[in-house]
Specification:
alpha/beta, eight-stranded parallel β-barrel, 9 helices
Length: 323
């Protein structure tokens, strides 16, 4: 296993100048570091989110080649049901050529259906699947996507997550399907993080406003891969945490670095009426990734990336599935 204290030797932002001015920060505490890594090695992977269809995917792939941004996973947010079979197949083939994991969202979801409570100040039940029909729609999406070659499914409801995990266990979905928990229902404490792992999540989005100490608390109870926006969309807070990226890896590994985009209009559910905005923001997300990776390199903390093409989460803790 990778020595988690190794990243402590990396230079922190402004460290040399501040030390010369008598403003040095305390040394990092090795006890705060995550002891975990991805199976096969490495403590961080990358993800480009909000890639809404084949055209946006082509932009992401072209820009990642131009800027030399390594990508482990590309995810989509509008949902399987917003794509034709031909579009899904095109995306599956394009990502397979680059050995990138493609993750598509299962829908429907509460924020788009007729439930009025999601439009109140409380947000109601949020993104969750309302009623049996919504759960059935998510399962339909999952089966259809997997039959077309999609190996990663994005989920926003704990009941749907458990149902898809059971479907995977009995062979309705392929055994190597991975289930990714949406940032919009992400856990904010170690107890809930562990529950989502046990319900079947293979990577778990956490809100981008969690503190470094929160990440350490989670890592004391779970080794399940964590997803975190290094820059969050405005509807998730708009946080920009690029300068913390090395410390986020040190505390949160194994960690997917998600390159989102603040100060940009929402694009879900995507359609061609949002084409220019979607293509422009897809390109800029890759650039944001380059900026974050440059920061890691300047701080001497860019080592220990998981090998490209790796996607599985390793052995995780699960609730027992009764017959």
């Amino acid at each position: 296993m990778t020595d988690p204290s190794a990243s402590a030797a990396a230079r922190r932002p402004g460290e040399q100048a501040l030390t010369a001015l008598g403003l040095a920060a305390p040394d990092p505490d090795p006890a705060d570091a995550s002891p975990h890594s991805f199976p096969g090695g490495g403590r961080w992977r990358t993800e480009i989110p909000s890639c809404e269809g084949p055209e946006a995917l082509a932009v992401v792939l072209k820009e990642s080649s131009r800027l030399d941004v390594p990508i482990h996973r590309i995810s989509q947010g509008s949902g399987v049901w917003m794509l034709t079979d031909a579009e899904i197949t095109e995306m599956v083939e394009a990502t397979a050529e680059r050995d990138i994991e493609l993750c598509l969202f299962t829908g429907p979801r509460g924020t788009w259906d007729i439930g009025g409570s999601t439009r109140t100040d409380s947000g109601g039940a949020g993104l969750r699947a309302r009623g049996h029909a919504a759960v059935a729609g998510c399962v339909e999406d999952a089966v259809r996507a997997s039959e077309l070659g999609v190996k990663c499914l994005l989920v926003a409801d704990e009941g749907v997550l458990w149902t898809l995990h059971r479907a995977r266990a009995v062979g309705i979905l392929p055994a190597d399907t991975t289930l990714k928990l949406s940032a919009l229902v992400g856990p904010v404490n170690p107890a809930s993080y562990a529950v989502y792992e046990r319900l079947g999540a293979d990577s778990i989005n956490v809100p981008s406003d969690l503190t470094l100490d929160h990440l350490t608390e989670i890592r004391r109870v779970s080794a399940a891969p964590m997803d975190m926006y290094i820059e969050a969309p405005d509807d998730l807070g708009g946080y920009v945490r690029m300068y913390e990226v090395a410390e986020l890896i040190r505390r949160g590994a194994p960690l997917y670095l998600k390159f989102g985009l603040s100060k940009a209009p929402g694009i879900y559910p995507y359609g061609h009426h949002l084409r220019e905005l979607t293509l422009a923001t897809a390109k800029e997300r890759v650039r944001r990734g380059r900026l974050a990776l440059d920061l890691l390199a300047r701080h001497g903390a860019d080592g220990d990336m998981a090998p490209l093409g790796t996607r599985l989460p390793g052995t995780l803790n699960r609730f027992e599935i009764s017959s």
